[in-house]
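Write out structure tokens for GTPase Obg.
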Amino acid sequence: MKFVDEAEIRVEAGDGGNGCVSFRREKYIPRGGPDGGDGGDGGDVWLRADENLNTLIDYRFERFHRAERGQNGMSKNCTGKRGQDLEVAVPIGTRAKDVDTGEVIGDMTRHGERLLVAKGGFHGLGNTRFKSSTNRAPRQKTNGTPGEIRPLLLELMLLADVGLLGLPNAGKSTFIRSVSAAKPKVADYPFTTLVPNLGVVRPAAHHSFVIADIPGLIEGAAEGAGLGIQFLKHLERCGLLLHLVDLAPFDQTDPAEQAQVIVHELEKYSPKLAEKPRWLVLNKTDLLSPEEIAEQREKIVKALDWTGPVYEISALQGNARDQLVYEIMQYLESLPKETEAVAEEPEMVEFKWDDYHDRELENAQENDADDDEEDDDDDHDVEVIYTKE
Ligand SMILES: Nc1nc2c(ncn2[C@@H]2O[C@H](COP(=O)(O)OP(=O)(O)OP(=O)(O)O)[C@@H](O)[C@H]2O)c(=O)[nH]1
Ligand SMILES: [Mg+2]
């Protein structure tokens, strides 16, 4: 299945149904009062997180998502039916942004979580509502308000505990293959990996974490070189980054310089990401002698001014790999459990129509006071004569 991690869609909530103007007309009941019902509210559009999805590809082809309109009010005080809500299923890890304002509407992090993204229009009022002591045959009604329309950017961010960073060919995919059941392609040319891969690592019974392998970065990635930095966003939710450095690059480049490139690109992309806990993992130790490894290690640590943890492994042969995996597990388990700060209640979209009905009714009453005669004319059979002054 093709992996697509961005899609722009347009969500349209249903309009509110209009109120109805109607009067009771029955035999032997002359001049029955108003009986026009209210309209129904328009349906809302929600996003719903679904663990069975893992790509946004469907939304590349299906861009318009519309909830049902509220039904209009009817005579005999019948209220129109509420429009049906629309649920748009998205993979877990999807973030919804308003394209116009850039505002993040919410993140979908748990299966079944729902997020309101477009609020349906409010119903209009039927003429019954406008009945008052001074106006017993109101002809006013209000129309339903339009449902919200929003262009949305859906961004899928993988939910991984550990993210792998490194130049192409550093051995990221080899590493994830050897520690998890994921089987991304491995080859001795750059940009073998074109889309992120996730693997579940189980260092011990009942202990596991998720690791994400993303395409390699190169110098100038922040400006779009190579595959660019579009995949770095998948690392934003990781608790730990592993920076893999190839100790024996086939093109004889200097590992220390190459390591600096990654750190620069990371800082350019996001200072926040650059500050995330990061471990340095020197890979391909099987190709060097212990002295060469020590020498390289010293150069890299100096070049990066590195004070954090350093590991030396061979992703291919497994040297020291299990120790690293075990320490990752211990580290992740020592992190404070993410408090479920994510709002239990779905985040509400600002609703512009809250006082809409009150306003309309108030206006109507004011108008009643002004043009009593006009409204009452067919009720009382009073002929109104307009005189010119
Ligand atoms: N000798 C040796 N070779 C390794 C080791 N790890 C990876 N390689 C080789 O290095 C090459 C690149 O490995 P990949 O895992 O595809 O590298 P990558 O970082 O995923 O590269 P991209 O997907 O292109 O970004 C392959 O030929 C691997 O066999 C290692 O520990 N020792
Ligand atoms: Mg790869």
